[in-house]
Each structure stands twice: as C-alpha cells, then as structure tokens.
Write a structure and sequence with these properties.
heterodimer; A: 91 residues; alpha+beta; 3 helices; 3 strands; 38% helix; B: alpha/beta; Hypothetical Protein Yjia, Chain: A,domain 2; seven-stranded parallel beta sheet; six-stranded antiparallel beta sheet
C-alpha cells in the first residue's frame, strides 16, 4: 500500500523493478503491440494504466497481467502473441 | 524481515507413493524440524496416521481437494502453524511439506503461496515434488499436470517394474526436472529438497512422446533478452494460452552478471530470482516450455519479435 495515495502497489512478477523509467518504457513497448489491435495504453501517475479502444471506451487496469485480460474483454477475443500476423506486424 | 519459511509440495497420482516417500523422509534426522500438512480426499483421513512421527506439527486438512475448494483452508492452516509456533504450542519448524491429494493440480496451491497476503510474507514455495510409480506411469491427465509442474520427479516402485522407459518419457515431458529413482522412500532429503539452479543445458530428447497431447520444447537464445519485452510477451502468452501451458522454466540472460531464474506453473509465475552466476560457461538464455498445442517455431519467432521491440525502443 502506498502511504501517500492509499493505492495498492503492483506486485506483478514482471513489474517489480526499475521504477518510473522502466514503467514508461513498458508502456511504450505495450503500445507497439496494442496498436496492432487498435488499442492504446497510458500511464496514470505511475500507479495504474488506462487502456483505451478506438471507440473511446477506457478502462483502468492495475498491472501488466490485467492489461491483457482487459484488452481481450474490450475486443471480445483472445489476443495470441503467437499469431503470425502479429509477429509479422512487429517485425 | 526474517527469512521466509520454505514450503515444498509433494504431489503424485493416487497410490503413486507420496505417503511412503514422505514417511521415510520424515524419519531422516535432517528433516526433524518439518511441519506437515496432509490433504486427503474422502471423509476419513488415513494417510496422516502413517505420518505420526511429527504428530503435533502434522495437520490434516478437511475432506476435499486442496487445489479446488480448500485454498482458503491452506492459507488458514499456514497462518495457524505460525501462530502456534510463536505461542510455543508446537515445536519450531524450518520447513513445511504439503502432501496433496492424488488428483490435485499443483498450480493453484503455488498460487496460494505466492498470492495470499499473509502467507506470501512468511512462506515461499520451495520445490514441487511429484511421485510417479513405475508400474502405472503417466496414465491420467492429472498425473501429467503434476509431472509437468515438478522440480523433482520421484519414480517409485522401481522394485516392481523397470523404470527405464518411463524415465525417458518423463525426461521428454519435463526436461526442467531432476529424476530420482526411489524404492520404499529411501532417499537423501537433500536430493529431494536441495539443489541450486536448474540445469537446463540438456536438450529436449528428439523423440517427443505426447502425453495427452503435452510436449516440451527447450529454446536457446543467443541474444540477451530484454526483460521488459519478455515480461510483456510472457504475460500475454499466459493470458491467451494459460490453460495450454503447464510449465515455463528458464535461465535468462537479461544483461546482468548472473542469469534470471524464471519459473511458472501454468499461469502462476514465481517472482523471478537473480542468480549470482551461470551454472557453466554457456550464457545463452534457455527456456523450457511444456504444454499442449505448442509448436517450437512460433514460440521462438514470437519471442524474438517482442525482444526486438525491446532492443529497438
């Protein structure tokens, strides 16, 4: 728990280190992937993320794991990193 | 903060020799300060009578399978053990061993250890030990899951059947686990619970035996892996294919002096651990994936594409 804001801090296994700089780098990389699906992600005060689709819907997500669960919910389908189209788009 | 107490899980299909192994291990002097939690199916517990030596530190969880209905009970029991130890009601213990039911899936149990707020503060997962008996092998989907989740595979009843073929199948199914042949539970506890970094150098045998469609792939990467990109990739993979991936274990070169040890049982990922040194001169990242509907090339191509994002950003 953050003593200033009362927000539960993430203890997601992939977000444990690096501070704010690492977090912004993570957001930049996530956006490269999410862009393929018409989604975008923003950081909100270093505490949570805001995930948006192109229709303007936005959801607040707590950690990296929840980003994918919410992205799948917004799009109504599974987002598979092994999808050859995605892999080709990232190349 | 004091060191966390290690919790090892002994799992294995019905009748595969879990209790025999555990009973024998607990007679060993090195296992004196061990608390035991036994979970059984059925109304009347039997196995705990075989574990009387550690009586007051042996707890029998109520009927029901730990992996499905009793995760709260497990957390309660682990908290209660600490309280009773602090009050001096039970002798001190330095390790907890949890014997699951024969049908248990170890992943939710590991998740309880890693995620329950009080439990994760005081305990940490140590080893998952799966018994597989040489007579019956891997006949059930549950035993395949248990074997895939294991850090140590204990092949039992080797006095009754030749274990050679089974061990080859186990090695193909879970190259990240060490295999021990044990009769009547006679084994040095250090071999079961001890050990350092996993040795993932051995390539997965070419002949891959499908068990319920489960295959293992061992991937090597020459380039260092960008940790941020890897985290994004693996979380996405586990979200999309969490039910198909039984295990991920790896030593990753993320640019530090030693490797990062990665260990996931299904969608449950242990906190990654920085190791001081590589086990040998070979510093390439190596990752073992065990799962269904997984092919090696797509895994490799996808991870490489995500990794390039990290390097290019």
């Amino acid at each position: 728990m953050c003593s200033l804001c009362g927000v539960l801090l993430s203890d997601h296994w992939a977000e444990g280190e690096g501070g704010r700089r690492a977090r912004l780098f993570r957001v930049a990389l996530l956006n490269r992937v999410l862009d393929h699906f018409g989604l975008s992600l923003g950081d909100w005060s270093g505490r949570v993320y805001v995930l948006r689709d192109r229709t303007g819907r936005a959801v607040v997500v707590d950690n990296l794991g929840a980003v994918w669960a919410e992205a799948e919910r917004l799009l109504g389908r599974r987002l598979d990193p092994l999808d050859p189209e995605l892999v080709a788009a990232l190349a | 903060m004091p060191d966390k107490l290690p919790v090892s899980i002994v799992t294995g299909f019905l009748g595969s020799g879990k209790t025999t192994l555990l009973s024998a291990l607990l007679r060993h002097p090195a296992m004196g300060e061990t608390a035991v939690i036994v979970n059984e199916l059925g109304e009347v517990g039997i196995d705990h009578h075989l574990l009387r030596r550690v009586d007051e530190r042996t707890v029998l969880l109520p009927s029901g399978c730990l992996c499905c209905s009793l995760r709260g009970d497990l957390a309660d029991e682990l908290r209660d053990l600490l309280s009773r130890r602090t009050r001096g009601e039970i002798p001190p213990f330095r390790r907890v061993v949890l014997e699951t039911t024969g049908l248990a899936d170890p992943a939710p149990i590991v998740n309880t250890l890693l995620a329950e707020p009080v439990v994760k503060h005081h305990y940490e997962p140590e080893r998952v030990i799966a018994t597989v008996d040489a007579v019956h092998g891997l006949r059930q989907p549950e035993s395949v899951k248990q074997a895939a989740a294991a850090d140590r595979l204990v092949v039992t009843k080797t006095d009754l059947a030749d274990a050679g073929e089974l061990e080859a199948r186990l090695r193909a199914l879970n190259p990240a686990a060490e295999i021990l042949e044990v009769s009547f539970g006679e084994v040095d506890p250090e071999l079961v619970f001890g050990g350092n970094a996993p040795d993932l150098r051995e390539p997965v045998p070419e002949v891959r035996h499908a068990h319920d469609g489960v295959v293992a792939h061992s991937l090597l990467f020459d380039e260092p892996l960008d940790w941020t990109a890897f985290g994004i990739w693996l979380t996405m993979l586990l979200q999309a294919r969490g039910n198909e991936i039984l295990r991920v274990k790896g030593l990753l070169d993320v640019g530090g002096e030693g490797p990062l040890l990665l260990n996931a049982v299904q969608h449950v990922v242990h906190p990654p651990e920085h190791l001081e040194a590589w086990p040998d001169e070979d510093r390439r990242s190596r990752i073992v994936f065990i799962g269904r509907n997984l092919a090696e090339q797509p895994l490799r191509a996808s991870l490489a594409a995500f990794n390039r994002l990290g390097g290019a950003a």
